[in-house]
Write a structure and sequence with these properties.
CATH class of the largest domain in chain B: Alpha Beta
Largest interface: A-B, 22 and 41 residues
CATH architecture of the largest domain in chain B: 2-Layer Sandwich
Distance between the termini of chain A: 59 Å
Number of helices of chain A: 13
Number of helices of chain B: 16
Oligomer: heterodimer
Strand order of the largest sheet of chain B: 9-10-8-7-6-5-4-1-11
Helix content of chain A: 25-40%
Structural class of chain A: alpha+beta
Number of strands of chain B: 17
């Protein structure tokens, strides 16, 4: 088939604006998926994705569509993760397309991620079709949203498609717009193979399956392919496309989207953004835009039951098979025993990965507070990256400490601007811009240290604005900062799993808050528990959990017996979940206390 | 099979401000229906037991007219032959079979004590609670301090030779002085038995709301502990032996009915919300007198709860209840019941608790020390 009849597109939107629902409707309307097979949100095939209503992995589906002009088109829908943690993946998925559907919720309007995703599309020179969704809702205001798309993003929205994906309104119009407005792919069928990897996963039977967009040339069974980033060569065993069931085909031609199976054993060999070429007739240059994705946020993961250590290691290995952006290495904590230091792209990625480990592998995990990676230049000139506060060298050995900064873009209703500005100020932010969009909203831009953001920034932003403020961010590099390690001592013993790195100016208040929170979380026990926060040898806060002097049931007669027994049994169960540190029992929540300060 | 018998009478002359029980004001018609239902439940009881002890609790059972009570006792006699059977006490034990009824000090003056003793009642438990007028008012009790002495006198003159008084401490506004005063006045009345409980705030009661709202303030925990320890000292000096966490008695007057609970003995409960334990099963009758009455009318009481105890449940109950007794639990008895050795299966925990001075083992028994009593829930959890 000639590329004239191919359309490669993606759907981008702020979270909850209806991306997956519209994708489902497109598949349904084109008959790709029958009504009977239709579970809500076909493309989100992980349980977790469906439950949370978010997309974590990219997907690609080929749809045949007979348009009003009488021709049948191949539409390749590339669904992308929507969250800031996966910005790089989104940008690579977009690089595989010629156009995007930009969905905006007609009851909410343009949000921070709408803007960020639209800019990504513009950067990739894509055709953008604005879709105004949820027009069936009583609070829908399509005209206001149309104006916002023009004023805020600067796109012509006069031909925006009005849609209710839920009710199936405007789906046909959307398909026509895709065919008419998005240009067909252009590429050189005779040039050496260049295909962009935009996703890959591990299959137990077939090994790694990679999703590619063929830019130049073609690939078929038997082609010897080479991956640009690592120079590794593989023989192609099978090519095909997803409907979303995988269907074999003879070849993937220039302009097409599909999968390649080539006996690749490790997902980490098939990196997103990498270029596939023909080993026997290689292209001179890879496609632009590839970079190594590095974990930004780290935490310690420990099995609650030490007997599960081996199981945890196996589970991490399996998780890594499918997710090369996640890393892990063994670590030991005096407090928690044997576990792993795990790296993630961001907080959502961390949360999702933990949930998958617990759910898919039946593990019970204890997690330490998240931390970022600090760059430490030692007095002897050596530069080390520190992803665990306990690994920070002695203060006397540190020449310079640097921490990662982000550029945060927040879309904020005007009435909450004051609160958001003081939140950013409190989080050591540097204001870059406030841009009043209209009477209702402004875009606030701040440079913020990532370590403040991983704590509780997003939750606070949401609660301060009653959920209306939205956030997007990008990394802008490392900056020198006056940082110190804050230790927590229980009955004079440092609990390494509670140590954290913080800015010196904030260390005193953080120490006090953390001690106070721990006092709330640690139950009274037989002996007094003294909680201290310290920087080096200097104690900066102290709290005492008074010993329990009285824990006795006064009345226990015929009618009380069963109830009292069950109560004691339940308490006993709760106690089992505590970590015993010396004579002190600590509930698991305590290790995340730093996230809960000010709750 | 020997078993205790408990009869629940849910009627009360008024509602105390700390009471969360679903009690109702006395009403002639409701009481008549209730007695009929009770009689039916007793007569149709499928379990054959040899009742050794009987306890009528409430509510305030003495709100029931003597003839109502007589019908219930008649039914028990008819069904189980209460007074025709050996009482189950050890040979040489001269204590008569125990037959307790609970009473409110404020309503004893109108009571026909002779009629009660004629029915076999030989022990009365009086809810004195406190001897401070302000504390009694705060609790919403209908009686004053003087009523307790009057009631005790009335009961003694009527031939009741075994009287128990209940006291409550840790009351909002209570201090050591007023607590000691209540203890002294209690001992002055020379009861055979004394129970004392710390105030339990039950959700949904007026007292609970007032403490939550900060209008009433309970004494701080160290004072509560001191109140308990001071009471133990005071009562033991006065000749009362502490035989359970909250119960004290003159020699020979420990409450057999309650000891049966702590010995994991069997009991049958009759009436709305009454609990039974027989054949390894704990059950609870349906709550609420109208439901109970209706259910009995329809052919028998319906159960609100029923639970077959696993061997593990029974072990844990044996530990939990056995440690309540000052004498503690008997290792040999545990082995006889469960076929293994407690000292063996909980060796580490017992050693740890002994090391911490919370339990002691001697004479083939495991018991709480006084420090252990104060944190007994923690000790029991360790042994679960």
């Amino acid at each position: 088939m000639k590329t004239t009849y191919i359309r490669n597109f993606s759907i981008i939107a702020h979270i909850d604006h209806g991306k997956s629902t519209l994708a489902d409707r497109l598949l349904e309307t084109t008959g790709t998926v029958t009504q009977r097979d239709m579970t809500e949100q076909v493309l989100d095939d992980m349980d977790l994705e469906r439950e949370r209503g978010i997309t974590i992995k990219a997907h690609a589906v080929r749809v045949m569509y007979k348009a009003d002009d009488g021709e049948t088109y191949i539409l390749n829908l590339i669904d992308t993760p929507g969250h800031v943690d996966f910005t790089y993946e989104v940008s690579r998925s977009l690089a595989a397309c010629e156009g995007v559907l930009l969905i905006v919720d007609s009851t909410q309007g343009v949000e921070a991620q709408t803007l960020a995703n639209a800019y990504l599309a513009i950067d990739n020179s894509l055709e953008i079709i604005p879709i105004i969704n949820k027009i069936d809702l009583p609070s829908a205001d399509p005209e206001r949203v149309r104006d916002e798309i023009e004023d805020i993003i600067g796109l012509d929205a006069s031909e925006a498609v009005l849609v209710s994906a839920k009710e199936g309104i405007g789906v046909k119009e959307t398909l026509e717009a895709i065919v008419k407005k998005i240009p067909p792919p252009i590429g050189d069928p005779d040039a050496p193979l260049k295909a962009l990897i935009f996703d890959s996963w591990f299959d137990n039977y077939q090994g790694v399956i990679i999703l590619v967009r063929v830019v130049d040339g073609s690939v078929r069974k038997g082609t010897r392919i080479k991956l640009f980033s690592n120079e590794k060569v593989f023989d192609v065993l099978e090519v095909g496309y997803s409907t979303p069931k995988l269907l074999k085909c003879d070849a993937l031609e220039c302009g097409e989207v599909g999968y390649i199976i080539a006996g690749i054993r490790k997902v980490s060999d098939s990196k997103i953004g990498d270029t596939v070429t023909n080993a026997d007739r290689p292209a001179a240059e890879p496609l632009p835009g590839y970079r190594e994705v590095k974990p930004m946020v780290f935490c310690g993961l420990y099995p609650t039951d030490t007997k599960q250590y081996e199981d945890l290691r196996d589970a991490l290995e399996k998780l890594r098979l499918n997710d090369s952006s996640f890393s892990y290495e063994p670590e030991t904590s005096l407090a928690l025993g044997f576990g792993f230091r795990c790296g993630f792209l961001g907080l959502l990625h961390m949360e999702i990965s933990q949930e998958r480990l617990e759910r898919e592998f039946s593990l019970s995990l204890l997690s330490t507070a998240p931390t970022v990676v600090y760059k430490v230049t030692k007095v002897d000139g050596e530069v080390i990256m520190v992803d665990n506060p306990t690994k920070l060298p002695e203060p006397t050995k540190i020449a310079v400490m640097e921490e990662p900064f982000i550029l945060a873009t927040m879309m904020v209703p005007n009435e909450y601007i004051g609160a958001i500005l003081s939140l950013c100020q409190e989080k050591r932010g540097i204001q870059k811009d406030i841009n009043y969009l209209d009477r209702d909203r402004a875009i606030v831009t701040y440079e913020l240290p990532l370590n403040e953001v991983v704590m509780d920034f997003y939750d606070k932003l949401k609660s301060m604005s009653r959920g209306y403020a939205s956030l997007d961010y990008e990394m802008i590099g490392y900056r020198e900062s006056n940082l110190v390690k804050l230790d927590i001592l229980l009955n004079s013993e440092i609990v390494d799993a509670l140590s954290l790195i913080t800015h010196r100016d904030k260390s005193a208040i953080r120490g006090r808050e953390l001690s106070a929170k721990l006092k709330e979380l640690i139950p009274r026990q037989q002996y007094e528990v003294i909680i201290q926060a310290a920087i080096g040898s200097k104690i900066i806060a102290r709290e005492t959990v008074r010993p329990l002097r009285k824990d006795v049931t006064a009345k226990c007669y015929g009618g009380d017996i069963t109830r009292k027994r069950k109560l004691l049994e339940k308490q006993k169960e709760g106690k089992k979940k505590m970590k015993q540190l010396g004579s002190v029992e600590i509930p698991q929540e305590a290790f995340l206390a730093v996230l809960k300060v000010n709750d | 099979m020997r078993a205790g018998i408990y009869v629940h009478i849910p009627f009360c002359p008024g509602k105390c401000r700390y009471c969360s029980f679903n009690s109702v004001p006395y009403d002639d018609q409701a009481a008549k229906l209730y007695v009929d239902a009770l009689v039916r439940e007793i007569e149709t009881c499928p379990v054959d037991v040899e009742p050794s002890i009987i306890y009528i609790g409430g509510g305030t059972p003495t709100t029931l007219p003597a003839d109502g009570l007589a019908s219930v006792i008649g039914a028990i006699n008819g069904r189980f032959g209460l007074w025709n059977e050996p009482t189950g006490h050890k040979s040489g034990d001269i204590v008569p079979p125990e037959f307790t009824i609970e009473a409110n000090p404020g309503t004893v003056s109108g009571l026909d004590v002779k009629a009660l003793t004629a029915l076999g009642v030989n022990r009365v438990s009086l809810g004195a609670q406190s001897f401070s007028p302000s504390e009694l008012a705060m609790l919403g009790r209908l009686h004053g301090p003087a009523d307790v002495a009057h009631a005790a006198g009335t009961l003694r003159r009527g031939g009741i030779t075994n009287i128990s008084l209940d006291l409550i401490y840790s009351l909002p506004g209570q201090d050591m002085r007023s607590w000691k005063e209540s203890l002294a006045q209690t001992v002055d009345l020379n009861p055979e038995h004394i129970s004392m409980y710390d105030l339990t705030l039950e959700e949904g009661t007026p007292l609970y709301s007032e403490v939550r709202a900060g209008r009433l303030v309970m004494p701080p925990e160290p004072v509560q502990v001191e109140m308990y320890l001071c009471a133990v000292d005071f009562l033991e000096t006065a000749g009362y032996r502490r035989y359970e966490i909250s119960n004290f008695a003159r020699p020979g007057f420990a409450c057999r009915h309650n000891i049966n609970y702590w010995d994991c003995g069997e009991y049958l409960g009759f009436g709305a919300g009454a609990h039974s334990y027989a054949g390894g099963r704990r059950t609870k009758n349906i709550d609420g007198i109208t439901y109970y009455t209706a259910a009995a009318g329809a052919g028998g009481p319906s159960l609100a709860e029923s639970e077959e105890l696993s061997p593990g449940d029974m072990e844990r109950e044996f530990i939990m209840l056995g440690l309540r007794k000052a004498a503690g639990l008997e290792f040999a008895e545990f082995r006889r019941r469960f076929g293994h050795d407690l000292a063996e299966s909980r060796r580490e925990a017992i050693a740890r608790l002994e090391g911490a001075g919370l339990v002691e083992t001697s004479g083939g028994r495991l018991r709480l020390t006084m420090s252990g009593v104060l944190v007994s829930n923690a000790v029991i959890r360790e042994l679960f």
